[in-house]
Amino acid sequence: QKNIRIAPSILSADFAALGQEVRAITEAGADYVHVDVMDGHFVPNITIGPDVVKALRPHSERTFDVHLMISPVDPYIEGFAKAGADIITVHPEAGPHVHRTLQLIKSFGKKAGVSINPGTPLAPVKPLMEEVDLILVMSVNPGFGGQAFIPESLRKLESLRRMIDDSGRDIDLEVDGGINRETAPQAIAAGADVLVAGSATFKGGPEAYAENIRALRGHA
Ligand code: DX5
Ligand code: ZN
């Protein structure tokens, strides 16, 4: 029995009440707080920056899992680290020096993650196995919440699960996009141990969060 962690994406929260929303998912049993950072350049949407992470930090003691969909990324790592991120995840597609970026993240004492888009093969991850603490498989094209899960992502999760187990390292395998009650068990079976869920966590409003999170975990 694996230890499955649920990471609600606050992209689907009420942006006018973010502090309250972060407290609500924390009370509802979230393990990580997943923060989607978008720049209108690497992805076709704009969300939030380090000041918002800093403002939210006092609202939860859970792991802040910051997913950077921005390019360039290096100039912003320090800001997110100092704002209180615990894990900072970057995309190799966003620039030529992902290894340097991972080293930079670790130089601030933070966990470093690498994320790969649906159209990216696993090859770029292989040379990074010694450097990463988390691998994030995008199961939708990044930019928006509420999109449909891309089934091919399951094959990627299976391959990465083998690579992680072979490495003997303690690396989170996270999946992001289109996770709901139907796809969550498939992703878990394929080897994921951290599930990002935006719309599936926040649907129904605060009274439903605890039940939504329990269901994603596979508990009836
Ligand atoms: C997409 C983001 C996801 C998104 C997931 O670019 O990285 O974290 O918020 O939303 P759902 O769970 O609704 O697919
Ligand atoms: Zn994300």
TrEMBL record:
GO molecular function list: D-ribulose-phosphate 3-epimerase activity
Protein name: Ribulose-phosphate 3-epimerase
Family membership noted in the UniProt record: Belongs to the ribulose-phosphate 3-epimerase family.
Manner of cofactor binding, per the entry note: Binds 1 divalent metal cation per subunit.
Keyword Isomerase: yes
Keyword Isomerase found: yes
Binding site for substrate: S9, H67, G143, F144, G145, G146, D176, G177, G178, G198, S199
Database matches in InterPro entries: Aldolase_TIM, Ribul_P_3_epim, Ribul_P_3_epim-like, RibuloseP-bd_barrel
Keywords: Carbohydrate metabolism, Isomerase, Metal-binding
UniProt-annotated binding residues for a divalent metal cation: H34, D36, H67, D176
PROSITE patterns: RIBUL_P_3_EPIMER_1, RIBUL_P_3_EPIMER_2
Pfam families in the cross-refs: Ribul_P_3_epim
Domain of life, per lineage: Bacteria
Species whose genome carries this gene: Fodinicurvata halophila
Catalytic activity: D-ribulose 5-phosphate = D-xylulose 5-phosphate
Coiled coil regions in record: none
Enzyme Commission (EC) number: 5.1.3.1
Metabolic or biological pathway: Carbohydrate degradation
Active site per UniProt: D36, D176
Cofactor(s) this protein requires: Co(2+); Mn(2+); a divalent metal cation; Fe(2+)
Record's function text: Catalyzes the reversible epimerization of D-ribulose 5-phosphate to D-xylulose 5-phosphate.
CDD domains named in the record: RPE (cd00429)
